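Hi L., both proteins are below.
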Amino acid sequence: MRRAAATAVLVALVLVATSAPGHAQAPEGLQVTAVGPSRFPEVTATVTLPAALAGRDVPPAAFTLLENGASATATVTPLPADELEVMLVIDTSGSMAGDALSGAKQAATAFLGRMPSATRIGVVGFGASPVLASGLSLDRQALAAAVAGLEAGGETALYDAVGRAIAQFSPGPGVHRSIVVLSDGGDTASADSLEGVSAKVSAAGVRLDVAELTSPESNRAALDRLAAAGNGALSSAADPVALGGIYDTVARSLANQYLLSFRARSGGRTELRVRLAHQEVQAEGVTVVDLPSLPPVPSPPTTTAPAREPVKETGAPVGTWALAAGAAMFFAALALVGLAAFSPGQRRAGRARLGRAQLPSVDATALSGLAQRASAWAEQALGRRGKREPLNHALERAGIAIRPGEFAVLVGSAAVVALMVGLLLAGVPLGLLLAGLAVVGFKAALGVLTSRRQARFADQLTDTLQLMAGSLRSGYALAQAFDAVAREGDPPARDEFRRLVVETRLGRDLPDALAAMAERLGSEDFAWVVGAIEINREVGGNLAEVLDNISGTIRERNQLRRQVKALSAEGRLSAYILLGLPFVVALALSVLNPGYLGELTRGFGPVLCGIGVGFMTLGTLWMKKICRLVF
């Protein structure tokens, strides 16, 4: 009896916990939400990752695709944000009046802020009939105003509202459609039926997620059938405050989708099973799709090959230089292929960069698969050694639009090519020297690109401040002044301010975004601007006048800096000539009279060479110190 009583109490506590206000049933696991066989036998499946992986970069090697139980090779890429369209369908019937509609508006507005800025979103409200509050748009302020303008009243035309939302999506391939429905009751006024709208959802390939606000009028069976037709999830909440958590989960899942492209090996009814194993998360998703029949494979014609003539041996041996030249050309070709594979156009968007990303599709070739696996491995190795974030920061400062793993693989490929060329030409010492020079060359090139980008930004800063001051005088807010620079400025100022605007729209505090931008650019002048903006935000005042004063100060500093640079041009040119002259003379002597130069390698010669290099280094630092202007 005691055990029975304890069991009853435990069951009662579980029931109370699950029915408590604010309880939400969040979608978990791996979801295969859409399958597109429009280019059959090439098939593309959209996979939604579990909420536990939100915001993480998942390598392609973590995915496994099974086609009717057999392993299939798939190319994995993140879903581009600009290919995603979302319609918010919100219940505005009479039962939603008061706190329910207020909570729904707050949750929908927060959802708009969490979605990527490149995703187009629309809003449909439904009472006795559906009302298009806003078509698909990128303007988050207009969408928030459309949500705020929804009013409760009338019956519930849920099915007609879903059909109205489906009609808003862009036609044709290349668009991934999603609907998020919020309702607190069953349909009472639609002309369409549950069967009809479910068929429309399936035919359009729309993912449909449902947020149910439980009430005495709820029809959970109908909502569950709608979610099943759209390969989505049904989440329930008894308290309007809990709707924010449901919308947040849906937003994270929509922003965490991947495309799996593969070549089908079977037609008809096909089971696709996707498995994911990344770090501590393991998940699996299954869907069944009807694929077209495979085209018949024509049999190759049987022909008799003509007899080949015997190859005559010439007996002339291939020279060493010819072999070296051929190997050099081969590895140079490999380097070019590596550059093409890791070009900025092949970069995937995810994951550590902000802003609009136009992500091209990746062909399912062995080269792209090898490049992706090598990049993922390098990314993980850099992360384990704590080198990923510093390298990522250095690439951002240089304006290089590739990931740290891709850059590491590119540097490693160049070093291997240089090592092989050196081994073929003169053995191990030259190979190691060339490999080291390749690595140092990439690092030096990264520093040069960073310095040039920072110098271009410093030259543009006065014009940028004038543009901001003019925008502020015209009545624009500070955020709108930043947006004006992002639209009308020149790179790199345009790129940096565009990133600043995107970060603030995604919820980052403006002072933090400005401080990160100043650190990324390494500009002392812009750090002044950031300080002035922070002081103005705290104490007020005429920010346009402050920016004008700072612009004038920076302009005078730049004039003085350019004057010093012009006056010291002759001295710097002399320093370059004096630094390069010993190496040029040594190279000439090694060709004209090797024995004369060989005296420096014996006896007291190495010591003299070391003393000479030390004096040259000291002179270089001295000249750099003299010509550097510090305010």
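That was the first. Here is the second:
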Amino acid sequence: MRSPRTLFDLLQGRASDSPEKGFRFTRDAAVTDSLTFAGLDRAARAIAAALVEGGAARGAPALLLFPPGLDFVKALFGCFYAGVAAVPAYPPNPGRIKRSMARLGGIVRSCAPRIVLCTSELRGTADAMVSHVPELQDATWIEIDALRTDPDGWRPLPLAPDDLAIIQYTSGSTGEPRGVMVTHGNILHNQQLIAEAFGSREGAEVVVSWLPVYHDMGLIGTTIHPVYLGGECVMLAPLEFLQSPYKWLAAISKFGGTMAGAPNFAYDLCTRKISDEQLSSLDLSSWRVAFCGAEPVHKETLERFATRFSQCGFRRSAFLPCYGLAEATLIVSGASRPEGFVASAVDVAAYRAARLTASRGEGPSVVGCGPAVGGQQLLVVTDGAPRAPGEVGEIWVRGDSVGRGYFNDPAQSRETFEARLADGSGPFLRTGDLGALDSDGELYVVGRLKDLLIVRGLNYYPQDIERSLEAALPAARQGCSVAFAVEEGDGESLGVLLEYDPRASRVEVDWNAAVEAVRTAIAADHDLAVRTVLIAAAGEVPKTSSGKVRRNETRRRILAGEVKLHHRWDSAAAAAPIPSKLTGRGEQEIAEFIASWLSRALGRAVGVDAVFEEVGLDSLDAVRLTQAVGRELGRELSPTLAMDFPTIGLLAGHLASSLRRELVSMIPNDGAGD
């Protein structure tokens, strides 16, 4: 296919040269829906016609609200065809309406969409959404599964590479969501870079993905890339992977997946959760590219995965650690190599002094994320000057994949997208990430200068979290709190530090109550479980001369034990035992089991009358809770079940009632009446 200029050209070409290839959506490795490139072209035409009829302006944002499935793909390309900027967003969760609508509200207030694309089922919840986000009151809602527009009657619009294609929001939390403006040209250039880094083969790849399509890795890397290649894409829902990591690998095995990837935590989860019996059923010999990004890549995780799954045909050479960010569309660096990945043990003292020096003994290992892909310029910069090989600084990028800036945020756009070196050369994208380049151009990412937190592969801005905890605790000194990353076995989780103001209270502080208030507020506002809470003395949080919190330096002091604390709480230290089995299976016993499980998982005492939204239950823990209850009951439960009930009591009552109905249905009916 000739090089396309826009994403409309791209799909048009694939509908012509590979009409029968396309997408499949699976559940339990069985195909439940499919969509060929020819079918996608027709669906996109119909949706584009509806957008034009609905008054959508060229370049204007359209909000995409879809559950996992192929309707999202249709809506995405419908926006591309109509010249409308697609704004992917998580649909609201009825069981967690406060949290999900807070995130959605931040995005809506940022981009003010006049069009909402959705399904008929989700359209039925529009009134409830508007009650939480009144800015959606006057929006035009288009249900793509109920369209009557004629795809053959739609006429292509004149599109250009510089036209806006996507507004990709890098934060789903409540405070300051930022939407990266990504053009058709940005996306197609980045597709070329991905193909180069991955060694993609046109027409020959099978991508298997559970990644959320609302974030850049799932959107650009596993939804659009198969179209760019003219290959196949097999999708499964993110929650299905969280419920059972085996299902991802089983889909790779069944459909002959050649490309599949995820954040670091997913590989660790597969290693720990897939049983020996499940292992024996897998054939991973087709898996050619196992990319890993979106959060820090750990050598130990990759080594354990490669060792455990080698018997299934997985090759260490398939690993491809890579680096990228939404502001650069997706990929910045990465490369396939015979050894799979490179990792270096570094000297601790040099590491802390912003240098990567090989260790003579034991030291932390850093994983290489490849050289810059294509013709991009990749620098490591401090104070406007490029650093020498091995020296740590901020990663700067220049190239045709870099987005146009943040939507409706010119000041932040200038600061992030228009950086220049001291000699005036530029502009560069300031990534806010810390790294070093070796003499061969290999990039090692070692931390974050910018404020982004990545938990379970999702992005959070710490200032939003800090705002929540300061509002929750009047005794917290305003502007003196820090949200930071806590390293765990399968990735990063959240820790918070706040300064206590002794003038705010005349009575002795109840530290346990303070911790409870902080955890509850962050769970309610951000759908995050806090693993560590530190309450520090006044003056312990370092600041710049202009009064800004130095988050990186604060985290360094915490890890070095240099912060004077009034109180420390850690979830692991507060763990509680779980009853071994459910025997009577009554409502009270089920509730007690759930409360005990939560007490252990969240690291604090949880009563049977607890409200899920108030105890700090995040999405992954909710899935794990459902699995644990299902195992004890001997039942296969929906992975989202714990999210559908607001309290332990209601969930326990539902389960007990279901069990009673099962028992009644098993009683023989002899026709004798009562």
